[in-house]
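#struct-pred
JK: can someone run the complex with magnesium ion? inputs below
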Amino acid sequence: MQTLHLDISDEDAMAAFAAKLAGHVAPGDTVILEGTLGAGKTTFARYFAWALGVDPDEPITSPTFALVHEYEARIPLLHADLYRLGDTREIHELGLEERLGRDAVALVEWGARFADELHPVALEMVIEPVDDDRRRVTLSARSARGEEILRALRENP
Ligand SMILES: Nc1ncnc2c1ncn2[C@@H]1O[C@H](COP(=O)(O)OP(=O)(O)OP(=O)(O)O)[C@@H](O)[C@H]1O
Ligand SMILES: [Mg+2]
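RT: done, structure tokens with the ligand placed:
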């Protein structure tokens, strides 16, 4: 499976990368977002949402309590945060699985723990803080669709 490493110098560069990825996703794609508290998962999701066409006046907040937020855009967007989720039974109760792989694009913070329930996952993105502004991003393909997205990103750097 392909992996792509990116050196993101600051938040503007993260916004640019989020916009770029938003240009390559299609309905049904799920992207898992990993990285320590405050790494920038929600920040990435915010720029991704705006690039996807979510109303710029719409606040894109952390789905820490609701667990899943949904936005209208060029492609409907689901933004989830599974940090507080206890076990797989709770993910079934959330009803997220039924929504994946269909009409929406999904960004799932802290989703790796539940990757089996979230399939088909296209990509896993890990954000590692280097300093206050710099982030190291690692994208790993988790399906043929993920491979396709990574190939497209490589071909249009
Ligand atoms: N290059 C960057 N990319 C993303 N965020 C950055 C960057 N540089 C600085 N930041 C700042 O880092 C913080 C990231 O916080 P954010 O809530 O997005 O993290 P998170 O990974 O979602 O955390 P949590 O695990 O608590 O949900 C924000 O305050 C953001 O402004
Ligand atoms: Mg977050």
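RT: quick notes.
The chain has one domain: 3-155.
Helices lie at 11-22, 41-52, 88-94, 115-118, 144-155.
JK: thanks, will look after standup
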